[in-house]
Design brief:
The complex is a heterodimer of chains A (about 260) and B (about 400). With about 260 residues, chain A is an alpha/beta fold. Chain A contains 9 helices and 12 strands. Classes of the chains: A alpha/beta (about 260), B alpha/beta (about 400).
Amino acid sequence: MSTPVLELSGISKRFGAVQALSDVDLSIAPGEVVALLGDNGAGKSTLVKVIAGAHAADSGQILWEGAPVTISRPGDAQRLGIATIYQDLALCDNLDIVANLFLGSEQMRFGTLDEVEMERKARELLDSLSVKIPSLRIPVASLSGGQRQIIAIARALLGEPKVVMLDEPTAALGVAQTAQVLDLIERLRDRGLGVILISHNMADVRAVADRAAVLRLGRNGGDFPVEETSYEEIVAAITGAADNPVARRSERVGASQTGEQ
Amino acid sequence: MSDVQATPGSQAALRRANRDRVTAALRESGTLTQAEIARATGLSAASVSNIVRDLRAVGAVSVRQTHSNGRRARAVTLRRSPGAVVGVDFGQGHITAALGDAEGATLARETIAYDVAADPGRGVRRAVWLVETVLAAARVDLSSVRAVCAAVPGPVDLDTGEVGAITCMPSWAGFRPGAELADRLGLPATAGNDANLAARAEMAEGAGRGLRHLVYVRLGEGVGAGVVVDGRVFPGAGGTAGEIGHLGLDERGLVCRCGNRGCLETQVGAGYLLEMVPARGAAGAPGSVAELVAAAGAGDPGSRRVVAEAGTALGRALAMLVNAFNPEALLIGGELAEAGEDLMDPMRRSLELGALGSAVQRLTVARGALGADAVLRGALMTAAASSDATV
């Protein structure tokens, strides 16, 4: 396996009396989709915010393409090449698709907006993602949930990131729209991007993820190759069914039995 | 019981065992209230309630409000063999998955756009996602599915389950969609040719109802036929029967991907037809078969000509088939069949020229009655029939 594009080790984060993350490790290789799974309050969002620079970690190390870096502000993460798409998408409903894609990075020509060039680039970008949207000049408010999600992801790609984090991209989408978003995630992987996918939907995770990293109560709860792991093993890791006195005892019994043979 | 079994002691195995206890109790006593089921099986009231909900979702039981000892109760009656089946249709550019009851009736279905031809492994992975999504929406547990049948556009070897070498999806050659689905879903799964499955469905509940001998022709990227002889789909020695797309019609025609020249497919296959459209690539020119059919219907002379010539070529090829098999009906399905008489009229005329009088005397030529659903219906029926054999 190639060098991970992003590697976190021993990340801890405390909010007052709450230890949100303790000693968490996570790595993402180029061209890999890692699903970040966990129950409510497991620390998924905190970890995403640490990577995105919204919260600085209290301790731990972050390696970017093998070199140690500090991410203390969102700008740091963006400069490195980490794009985050939050659940609310942060799109402006009243603006058209082109304006949304170039929001904050508008292209100028002779002191005015270069609409022609922006539209050409937008069309090129969406074509490269095989996204079919009839007109780029309609307000985002009139798009479907799936299309809005795709526009939000496309906007993040304009900064040419190497890692894309998606927070619940398929929540509240219909079947056909979810399929479109899954297609897009596959295309990001084919381009060699590392993708961190946060999702509660196990079917979606099993459809596109290469690995599932489970967080439980702010700690690493296991790291599974999705194709070789059963649904139940992953759910057990999320709920902690694999980590209780009964499970530990049966493991000991099993180990001693194999030891006797 | 299937031999693909959940791990002993797992949640799935436990659910399956509990469901079997409930159905066994119902089979023995006829109608029972949920409380009586709980007493008879020793399961908790909550478990019984969940199991009854699952069985009801697949249509295996009916539930009726009643009274027992002056209290409200729910009377449960077994209607048909419990267990559901799943059908999957791998089409050109789309995947459809459907949930069916034990008799093959459709309970729920979903279609997504997907580039199926690109990579068979990914296609199956996405199909598994679609199946899981359909089941989750219908609140049916994967463990209550007894069999899965997938339709692919191409010949499927009867012994190995491998897709044949010459199909409209070259990357699928040698791939085993049935085995791959079985592996990923943990359920018994088979795969079949789409035209054969559609023929089965048309014979059971479509335009071929009550007939013994019929030919179903499916027009898509390629051309496939399902040949029904004496009430059964005739698969041939290895599953390649009915690949009429490679009947040679014109020795000076285009070279086909099969290596021969002038095959039927080079005259009616979707890709070839779109190549023939005048002003191809210009704005407003048909870019898909559906658009071509619409343009022909709207009277565009170029599109009408393309559709009519496809009909003529099809008629010549089908004349050979009619002479060989003397069927009672010839049913046409697939996207191009939507063109209706624009296609069928020239087809009938060239068919009558090429076929023996005695062979067409008792022949009905019509469009399939099930339309685009035929393939999926056939897959569900096949899955239901195969699950009957294993129960």
